[in-house]
Predict the structure.
Amino acid sequence: MRDRSRARRWRRHAGAAVWMAVLATAQAGEPPIPPPSRATLEALRVQRSGEAVTLGSLLPADEPAVVALWASYCVACRAEGGVLADTRSRFKDRGMRVMIVLADVDDPAAAKRFASDVRAPVEPLPIAKAQEDAAEDLAPEGFPTNYLVRGERVQRIDRLLKAADVAAFFQQP
């Protein structure tokens, strides 16, 4: 009986090791994801009040900001609204800006409908026409992708944002 359980455990561990080797080999061929830069983020064109503007014109120069890249079909993005609302109220006294960019919507009316459906803490900025590829480049791991920005420092978070992520980033000098 004891020998059978040892054999089962060995097979289970061996199987896990094989799968880990397969995954490591598959990931080794992928090019590394470049680190985020403020200039790349600033170059993205969004619509505001019916006009195409760069995100850089909306980002504060020295004050902290959270830029959330969402897609209208993304369930996790919809769930993130509460964290963004909490972040906005918690850091409001420090001049924190929260921006939501809808990467797959280029119609301002559709963005407003989306905002009311998900109870977004701020009105989402629809992507400017012909900028979908640029938005997808900023979200290499998919949606939601969040950028924490403070001055020239930028951190990309390729998952659901947590309040602790925001607090840790903005408490750093």
